[in-house]
């Protein structure tokens, strides 16, 4: 302790959180030196710079963690911790010999004698040189290599071994993560090898209980190939059996081996996870958001630098991606991924939203509390010896494609170019956990470490001062030892608890045990699985940062066999030991589950399936962010057949017939009348209403899409009039509308007692982002007249409209109009005596442009005016947008081929660069191949340098300043302020917006749906939302609730979300693009009031004297029309309903 105090008082101590200690101080001089030659370089040895790991553990039981560094060409080294961050190299005296090309390092007491042993993986194409090593601790700081005796001398191309008790017989078994050197390109598209034929198939060794192991891979079902680089153990389905996650490189899928509890495993990766990293490297599993569920972080190689990104990103096309899927490969993207675990055991990928997705060629992620504030941070290593991903090198390097000369001459030419390749040498990254699901890059403030090629890494409290130090194994430079200065720099708010486990006889380290801390409203949970990050094994002493806490309310440890022990009122800033001997078998006293807010009722809508056609928009416009032909379906609710039960219309895709779905007495929907020739149209939004005052609901359907030529008759919207026999016929009462339309919204804007229409144009087909005409249609005895020029001339070319809302935003009892869309501002039109005036500049909202998808309104804060939720693109994307650094697009037929070329620009590190890769740009504009001959030239070009000033003349230019789904608070008099909804609402594009008091607390809540999987192929799918429920507090603030509370879980690419009100409650219908309908029910029997067609809003007064306004919409959210029924709140005292002509009637009066 005296030494620690002296070191802590050094006058030259840096102000950063971590100090990189020199080898002269630590005694650690290990450097994983690799020397290239003409016969040994990245072109003929693929994994030359994959590096090796670090292991740590207390080999002499003195309480100090010791260190083992794996060596590739150089011998591995073992260092004994002498205290005070000084180490002694005892490699030779300990009996550690040069064992081959070492990769993964694992510390484990394999023979249960109370001494740490060391397992070293060896990689070689030659089996005779690939046998793994097991160093058995002899008790006097010496070791004896006995892998063969134990049956663990696996001779595959081993990456790492994880020890765990897969069969729950009490002892530790071994999973050997395996890679392989193929004779072909590892990314070649080919059938997946599933029957143990692949050289990269992993191995599972069962512990026989007598210090020997048996390979049981085949009988256990471990038979699928995968170029393994990372491994983690977790219980993904909470059944008490440990499962295995394998992070696999190149084309091979990651594997998630679900333990069946009978000695076998089944791959469940696609059941639980929707997308992974493409070049899966190291990984870690930990609960980073303190919700008691373990999350997964996985590394890849997406650069932060625009130049490096553009020089390594090859062409990727939708057809190629589809071929991959057809062969069984799952969605994989070149970026780090962060899988947030949901309460139903599924995962939502949110690496981009969390801000950790691009850290270049990365290896070891470690999730741990590095500043002791109670939140787990992220450290990761990166670097590579030669940038072999440089496309200028692979496509243009002299010698690669030059056929002249003999083999040795060509070989020399190629190697000359390899030597010229730059090294990818970067600083290792530090990310601070912000506590809101995101991380902040604090690399420059937390560390002053130099650039390096760092591979394996570990965390451990090397000096026992209460914070976690870091160690990395570096190529061609000495290992890094980062001393954590948290305790020295900030003593008061950095308390901690260290927990050492003393397990049962056959598992003395307690591997697999779960330790959970409870304090206040917080829990922290971790599992004892030391193999983490990349080819490394961290300190088995568990570390919990606790901020200001002087004590922990309780601690629970659950051992692998289910026995449990609990300690209470534990003081912090200490290290404790928990022994299995003190554990007890406790009866399972699970708290009965409370009913969820919503219950699934999919059986009522199971026959309703949306079917997309095969059109691929990217074939015509390769640079689109997403397809424009897959915007549906929408929904409309109404009592079509007059039986008192509300029926349903779901719009369909081109070439599919649409129907009215009639609700039967048993609550199910049955196919009713088909709509004439509906298969000719890509249907979008719709309105069910009596347009001609004959007492029967009619149907207006917008015709949109992007598949057909511009001004095709198949873009004509359809007005279906219901006939006396219940069938529908197409009316001739519409003007010619050849725009590709999306939303249709009805209101009596002119106060004459009938419903008029706003029809929003989505786009000009095959000409993105060119806008087409939107309309105001005036109802004249059931026929509609285009009055746009007279009533609202600005609406004609307002933009690429996605949604709109007729709403009285200024409380003057006249319906105003809010229009939202892609590359648009939220645009406010005030109704001034039947004319619509654009008052956006006076709203407090000018300049707030986005990829707005939807809008819905309600009086969330109970102040008597309407506030709004506006769905946006979300921030789980590589794109960013702000007022200072907007997302930009320019569009024009730059190459004069008759097609519009849309080019996006996005800021990267303060500079606006073009978004497309060079190859993608060339696929759109072939002449760019000559302008940017080399990838590096394109990588250096800013957005404004892609085209000349002359070329930009006449080009469309638009900007987006926000990607956040947003809450607009109405401040009165048509003025608004805005704020983003919680981060969870930003994890995917938001489409459906439903509003209801779901928890019956008197405050309105919000239900959101979304996702897109029809996105461009490099950025990848935006499908991390499983359906979101935000509970309101009545003041305009919202808090996320999890699926175990809400009961709300959506399946796919959700679009329209409708509310159908019954006497028993409210059904929430979710329409999924190219998928089956879903239904969720809120059981809350209440009196309902059937609304008249021209009712526009109600004033509701409650028993406590408070009141709020509720509007009634024909069209809201996304392509949706809800029930025209008003549920009467239990606490309602009086309800007054107003119609479009400002006449009122009493809906309820208890006064």
From TrEMBL:
Keywords from the named record: Signal
SUPFAM superfamilies named among the record's database cross-references: Integrin alpha N-terminal domain (SSF69318)
Transport in keyword set: no
UniProt organism field: Pricia antarctica
Matching Pfam families: FG-GAP_3 (PF13517), UnbV_ASPIC (PF07593)
Entry keyword Signal: yes
Name this polypeptide is given: Repeat domain-containing protein
ASPIC/UnbV domain location: 510-576
Gene3D superfamilies, per database record: Integrin alpha, N-terminal
């Amino acid at each position: 302790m005296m030494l620690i105090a002296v070191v802590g008082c050094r006058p030259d101590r840096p102000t950063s959180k971590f100090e990189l200690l020199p080898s002269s101080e630590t005694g650690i001089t290990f450097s994983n030196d690799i020397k290239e030659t003409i016969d040994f370089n990245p072109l003929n040895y693929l994994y030359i710079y994959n590096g090796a790991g670090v292991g740590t553990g207390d080999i002499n039981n003195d309480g100090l963690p010791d260190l083992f560094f794996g060596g590739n060409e150089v011998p591995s080294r073992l260092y004994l911790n002498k205290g005070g961050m000084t180490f002694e190299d005892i490699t030779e005296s300990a009996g550690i010999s040069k064992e081959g090309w070492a990769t993964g390092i694992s510390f484990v007491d394999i023979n249960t004698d109370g001494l740490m042993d060391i397992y070293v993986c060896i990689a070689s194409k030659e089996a005779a040189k690939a046998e793994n090593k097991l160093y058995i601790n002899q008790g006097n700081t010496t070791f004896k290599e006995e892998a063969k005796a134990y049956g663990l001398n696996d001779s595959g191309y081993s990456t790492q071994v994880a020890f765990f008790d897969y069969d729950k017989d009490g002892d530790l078994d071994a999973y050997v993560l395996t890679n392989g050197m193929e004779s072909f390109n590892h990314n070649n598209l080919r059938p997946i090898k599933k029957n143990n034929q692949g050289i990269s198939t992993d191995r599972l060794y069962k512990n026989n209980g007598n210090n020997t192991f048996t390979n049981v891979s085949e009988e256990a079902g471990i038979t699928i190939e995968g170029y393994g680089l990372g491994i983690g153990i977790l219980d993904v389905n909470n059944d008490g059996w440990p499962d295995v996650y394998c992070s696999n490189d190149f084309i091979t899928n990651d594997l998630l081996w679900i333990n069946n509890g009978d000695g076998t495993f089944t791959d469940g990766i696609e059941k639980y996870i929707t997308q992974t990293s493409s070049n899966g490297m190291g990984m870690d599993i930990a609960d980073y958001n303190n919700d008691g569920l373990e999350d997964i972080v996985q590394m890849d190689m997406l650069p932060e630098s625009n130049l490096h990104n553009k020089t390594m990103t090859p062409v990727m096309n939708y057809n190629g991606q589809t071929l991959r899927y057809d062969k069984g490969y799952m969605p994989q993207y070149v970026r780090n991924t962060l899988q947030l675990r949901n309460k139903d055991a599924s995962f939502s990928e949110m690496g981009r939203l969390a801000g950790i997705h691009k850290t270049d060629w990365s290896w070891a992620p470690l999730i741990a509390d590095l500043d002791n504030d109670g939140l787990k941070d992220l450290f990761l290593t990166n670097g590579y010896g030669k940038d072999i991903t440089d496309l200028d090198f692979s496509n243009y390097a002299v010698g690669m494609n030059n056929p002249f000369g003999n083999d040795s001459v060509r070989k020399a030419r190629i190697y000359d170019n390899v030597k010229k390749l730059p090294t990818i040498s970067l600083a290792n990254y530090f990310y601070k956990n912000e506590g809101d699901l995101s991380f902040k890059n604090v690399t420059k403030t937390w560390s002053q470490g130099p650039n390096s090629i760092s591979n394996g890494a570990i965390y451990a409290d090397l000096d026992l001062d209460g914070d976690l130090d870091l160690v990395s194994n570096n190529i061609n430079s000495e290992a890094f030892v980062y001393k954590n200065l948290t305790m020295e720099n900030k003593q008061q708010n950095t308390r901690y608890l260290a927990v050492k486990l003393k397990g049962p006889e056959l598992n003395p380290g307690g591997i697999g045990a779960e330790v959970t801390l409870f304090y206040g409203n917080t829990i922290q949970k971790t599992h004892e699985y030391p193999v983490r990050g990349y080819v490394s094994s961290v300190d088995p002493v568990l570390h919990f940062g606790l901020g200001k806490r002087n004590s922990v309310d309780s601690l629970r440890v659950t051992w692998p066999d289910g026995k449990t022990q609990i300690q209470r009122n534990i003081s912090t800033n200490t290290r404790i030991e928990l022994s299995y001997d003190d554990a007890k078998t406790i009866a399972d006293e699970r708290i009965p589950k409370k009913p969820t807010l919503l219950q699934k009722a999919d059986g009522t809508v199971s026959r309703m399936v949306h079917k997309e056609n095969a059109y691929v928009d990217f074939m015509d416009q390769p640079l689109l962010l997403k397809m424009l032909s897959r915007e549906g379906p929408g929904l409309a609710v109404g009592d079509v057949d007059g039986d008192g039960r509300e029926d349903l219309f779901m719009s369909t895709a081109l070439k599919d017939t649409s129907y009215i779905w009639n609700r039967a007495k048993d609550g199910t929907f049955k196919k009713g009348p088909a709509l004439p020739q509906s298969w000719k149209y890509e249907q979008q939004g719709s309105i069910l209403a009596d347009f001609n005052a004959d007492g029967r609901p009619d149907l207006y359907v917008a015709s949109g899409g992007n598949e057909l030529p511009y001004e095709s008759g198949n873009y004509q919207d359809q007005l279906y009039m219901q006939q006396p026999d219940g069938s529908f016929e197409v009316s001739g009462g519409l003007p010619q509308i050849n725009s590709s339309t999306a939303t249709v919204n009805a209101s009596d804007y002119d106060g004459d007692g009938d419903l008029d229409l706003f029809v929003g144009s989505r786009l000009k087909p095959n000409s993105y982002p060119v806008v087409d005409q939107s309309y105001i249609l005036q109802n004249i005895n059931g026929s509609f007249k285009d009055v746009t020029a007279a009533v609202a001339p600005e609406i004609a070319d307002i933009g690429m409209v996605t949604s709109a809302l007729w709403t009285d935003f200024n409380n003057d009892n006249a319906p105003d109009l809010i229009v939202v869309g892609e590359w648009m501002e939220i645009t406010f039109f005030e109704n001034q005596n039947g004319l619509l005036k654009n008052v956006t500049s006076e709203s407090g909202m000018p300049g707030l442009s986005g990829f707005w998808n939807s809008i819905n309104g309600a009086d969330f804060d109970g102040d008597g005016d309407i506030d709004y939720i506006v769905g946006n693109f979300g921030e789980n994307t590589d794109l960013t947008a702000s007022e200072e650094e907007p997302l930009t697009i320019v569009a024009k037929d730059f190459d004069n081929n008759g097609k519009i070329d849309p080019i996006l620009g996005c800021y990267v590190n303060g500079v606006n660069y073009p978004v497309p890769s060079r190859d993608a740009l060339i696929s759109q504009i072939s002449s760019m191949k000559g302008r940017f001959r080399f990838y590096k030239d394109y990588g250096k070009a800013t957005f404004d340098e892609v085209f000349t000033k002359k070329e930009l003349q006449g080009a469309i230019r638009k900007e987006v300043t926000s990607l956040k789904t947003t809450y607009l608070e109405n401040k009165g008099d048509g003025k608004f302020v805005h704020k983003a909804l919680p981060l969870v609402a930003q994890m995917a594009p938001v489409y459906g917006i439903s509003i209801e008091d779901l928890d019956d607390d008197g405050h309105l809540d919000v239900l959101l749906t979304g996702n897109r999987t029809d996105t461009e192929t490099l950025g990848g799918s935006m499908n991390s939302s499983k359906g979101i429920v935000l509970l309101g507090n009545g003041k305009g603030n919202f808090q996320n609730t999890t699926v175990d509370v809400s009961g709300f879980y959506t399946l796919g690419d959700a679009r329209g979300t409708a509310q159908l009100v019954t006497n028993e409650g409210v059904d929430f219908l979710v329409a999924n693009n190219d998928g089956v309908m879903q239904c969720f029910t809120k059981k809350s029997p209440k009196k309902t009031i059937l609304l008249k067609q021209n009712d526009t809003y109600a004033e509701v007064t409650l028993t406590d004297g408070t009141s709020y306004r509720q509007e009634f919409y024909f069209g809201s959210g996304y392509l949706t029309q809800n029930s025209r029924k008003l549920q009467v709140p239990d606490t309602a005292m009086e309800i007054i309903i107003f119609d479009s002509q400002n006449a009122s009637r009493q809906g309820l009066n208890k006064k």
